[in-house]
Amino acid sequence: MYAGFWNRFAAAFLDGLVILVVEIVLLTVLPSSGVMAVVLPILILVMVWLYEALLVSSPRQATLGKMALGIKVTDLAGDRIGFGRATARFFSKLIGYFAGTILILLGTWLIGGIGALLFGLIGTVVILGSFLMAAFTVRRQALHDLVAGCGFAVFEQAAAGTAATPDDADG
Q: What's the pLDDT at 60?
């Protein structure tokens, strides 16, 4: 059974809150000038990568947000993925970000005016589309899932402690 778009969105939102708290602590504790102005963003990227890749490849197969919603990341056969595939999945998310951002920047720097607006809209659609496609694919896979050969399964509803039904996974 595949996790639906809205369940995945809610899990990503919860994970974002967890990451935000850690980032705020880091930004409060560590200096943000000089060399740290370069090191801090890299440190945060590594932290987010390890958070996702280590937890998704763990026996629980889920980040904290996914655990809260009873969602597990699997390969296409329904088995646990390894750290390498979890890493590929994480960095595949950046494909949509980079492609969309490049379009936005090209429109702003090279074209300007209404062209910049058009490129900005197209870039935004590319960024969102790489995630929104999970609402329309049969296995509810986003671009990063397709690239890494992963799927999502809903095994249990964490709050109710009961098995999920097909209606629960439609999201």
A: 93
- Give me the mean pLDDT over the 81-86 stretch: 90
Select from 127, 151, 124 the least CA-distant residue to 137: 151
Cα dist from 148 to 90, 99, 142, whole Å: 9, 18, 10
Cα distance between residue 2 and residue 151, in whole Å: 7
Count how many Cα atoms sit within 13 Å of the Cα of residue 70 in the half-sphere of its side chain: 18
- Pairwise CA distance, residues 113 & 148, whole Å: 38
What letter does residue 8 receive in the DSSP assignment?
H
Q: What pLDDT digit, counting tens, does each position of 87-104 carry?
A: 988 888 887 778 778 777
Angle between helices 83-106 and 36-56 (to 10 degrees): 130
Gap between the Cα atoms of 12 and 99, Å rounded: 21
3-state SS, 45-99, equals: HHHHHHHHHHHHCCCCCCCHHHHHCCEEEEECCCCCCCHHHHHHHHHHHHHHHHH
